[in-house]
């Protein structure tokens, strides 16, 4: 199992979700509105968020835990759909997941996702 975290531009969210819904067996997704900055800071942002003396860029974070056989499909779908070719398109992180426990049923492993 892998956790996939993707940070993307907010206006790409609907397109990415639409494409992810097409993946059979996708267990689910968590979405958070976030802010931050990358190497270029927020200098080139069209809509920077100012907090004190710092500027940040609005982003959306997607978090998914998927079986290993879905990882490449999910990553490729996010990458292709979120891509604009401009600075700040985002990042995708792929992290090993040792165990998942479903709180309601105490199921463990892939059946818990």
Q: Briefly, what CATH class?
A: Alpha Beta
User: What structural class is derived from the secondary structure elements?
Assistant: alpha+beta
Quaternary arrangement of the chains shown? single chain
> What fraction of the residues are assigned to beta strands by DSSP?
25-35%
Q: How much helical structure, as a percent, in the residues?
A: 10-25%
* Unreliable sequence segments: none
- CATH architectural type: 2-Layer Sandwich
Count of separate structural domains: 1
How many whole angstroms does the radius of gyration measure?
Answer: 16 Å
Per the principal axes of the C-alpha atoms, what is the gross shape?
Answer: elongated
CATH fold type? Alpha-Beta Plaits
Sheet bearing the most strands, described?
A: 5 strands, antiparallel
Mean pLDDT figure = 92
How many individual β-strands?
A: 5
Query: Strand-and-helix sequence, N→C?
Result: EHEEEHE
The termini sit apart by: 9 Å
Output the number of helix runs.
Answer: 2
Protein name: Nitrogen regulatory protein P-II
Organism: Melioribacter roseus (strain DSM 23840 / JCM 17771 / VKM B-2668 / P3M-2)
Pfam family, one: P-II
InterPro entries: N-reg_PII (IPR002187), N-reg_PII-like_a/b (IPR011322), N-reg_PII/ATP_PRibTrfase_C (IPR015867), N-reg_PII_CS (IPR017918)
